[in-house]
Amino acid sequence: MQEGFARRHVRSLTAVLSVASIALVVAAVRGVVPSGALPHAPQWFVDAIPPLNAAISAAAIGTIVVGVRKIRAGNVDAHRRAMLATTVLFFAFLGLYLYRLVVHGTTEFAGPETVYTFVYLPILVVHMGLAMVSIPLVYYALLLAGTHSVAELPQTRHPTVGRFAAGAWLVSFALGIVVYLMLYVLF
């Protein structure tokens, strides 16, 4: 049987997609992407992105939990739908986040310095670290799922990597909501 390119190169594709994704985020954070390169939406839309992304994160937490429960129950089709929904939610989140970052910049923490140093910053660092760790794990799990039959997946690293990806993704989304609350609601 002739194997497809993606199936033969899951690790390489994971690496390329991961590096490209992380480079895009770093470029946006560092201001490499000029704000003039993107169309400017009305201010109300830019202002709506943080609460919208918090809602997207909450929905993604729900779809991850559903996906984990469905695969534990042996319902592969429902698991696949839930994890694809999570992926779509993630890309929607990321697109909105990067857009706002490029056209608006970062939001400064307005709370007390001690809260910033001992609460906000550690939460932000863990959130960002898990988000970055999630990227290659998610790509790898998705590429395995997309290039192997359901019968083959248990013999791949998909179940193991998928568990780690789901856990890291789940905590990252949850901490992202905490970051939102600290930036836009509490302070």
From TrEMBL:
InterPro entries noted in UniProt: DUF420
Alphabetically list the UniProt keywords: Membrane, Transmembrane, Transmembrane helix
Parts of the chain that traverse the membrane = 12-32, 52-69, 81-99, 119-143, 164-186
* Keyword tRNA-binding listed: no
**What's the protein here called?**
Putative membrane protein
